[in-house]
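> call design_seq(struct)
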């Protein structure tokens, strides 16, 4: 199956963009900020929160990173002017982390200062393992001055429990997900059962510390077990929310809303949607099998393991 998925990745790269978009449009708002805003408004009408994400990480130079920062500013302005129930997610390499860590700190600091002024929030996304420590170091520096910034922790990484114990000391706001990048077995758990167990271990560590957590998963088992932890700790709604990707497990999303819990949908947009889609396939060929099924069948379900 792994070889088949890799073959599909190769085939998809030769497909016309229009055909790839047929699949991608379910999971990406569109090319423009207005596309994303329109979608967020529809979600907000249903009481659903959102986080906006401009596609295009791993910029090649500082000029591109500055362009990304300027667009992120426009996102913040739009959130405020349109009174959206939304915040902003950014990737540190999009802000220049792979070029110069100090430059990236200055870029992100400028954005966090802006959301502080308007009482909004920025989530720093987590990327693959070369950037894990660098990202946490960025967060620690930012938290010395600002409060409206949080980070993502990935449950499949073996180091994550120690990271959470450390980050709890600075009252971190978390997004907890399984993790999507292909990492070696030396640093990452590979078995589904082990990842699930670690996810719940990390979640309880966060909850018991009193810090805020976005429970980001499409795994129904983890959602049900998370609800048990919420009840065990008598957790109030101002201490957690559920989070999902756009277009994935709509049935679970609706159930979470019906049960009275907060849920936030991750809304990616931008002209880099094609490169983003292809890069995700290369990083995790497992997704390719689900794309194939979506393109050539009526099924629209994407497996949780391929996303969070």
């Amino acid at each position: 199956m792994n070889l088949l998925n890799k073959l599909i990745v190769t085939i998809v790269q030769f497909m016309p963009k229009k055909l790839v978009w047929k699949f991608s449009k379910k999971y990406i708002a569109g090319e423009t900020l207005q596309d994303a805003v329109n979608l967020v408004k529809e979600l907000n009408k249903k009481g659903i929160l959102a986080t906006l994400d401009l596609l295009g990480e791993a910029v090649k130079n500082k000029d591109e990173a500055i362009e990304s920062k300027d667009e992120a500013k426009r996102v913040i302005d739009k959130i405020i002017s349109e009174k959206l129930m939304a915040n902003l997610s950014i990737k540190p390499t999009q802000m220049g982390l792979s070029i110069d860590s100090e430059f990236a700190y200055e870029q992100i600091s400028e954005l966090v200062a802006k959301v502080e002024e308007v009482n909004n929030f920025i989530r720093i996304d987590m990327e693959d393992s070369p950037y894990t420590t660098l990202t946490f170091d960025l967060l620690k520096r930012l938290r010395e001055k600002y409060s409206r910034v949080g980070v993502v922790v990935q449950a499949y990484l073996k180091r994550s429990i120690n990271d959470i114990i450390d980050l709890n000391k600075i009252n971190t706001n978390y997004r907890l997900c399984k993790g999507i990048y292909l990492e070696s077995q030396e640093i990452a758990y590979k078995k589904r059962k082990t990842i699930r167990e670690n996810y719940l271990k990390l979640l309880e560590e966060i909850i018991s510390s009193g810090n805020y957590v976005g429970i980001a998963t499409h795994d129904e088992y983890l959602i049900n077990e998370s609800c048990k932890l919420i009840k065990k700790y008598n957790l109030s709604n101002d201490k957690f929310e559920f989070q999902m990707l756009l277009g994935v497990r709509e049935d679970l999303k609706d159930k979470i809303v019906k049960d009275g819990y907060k849920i936030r949908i991750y809304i990616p947009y931008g002209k880099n949607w094609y490169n983003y889609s292809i890069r995700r396939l290369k990083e995790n060929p497992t997704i390719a099998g689900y794309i194939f099924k979506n393109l050539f069948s009526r099924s629209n379900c994407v497996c949780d393991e391929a996303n969070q």
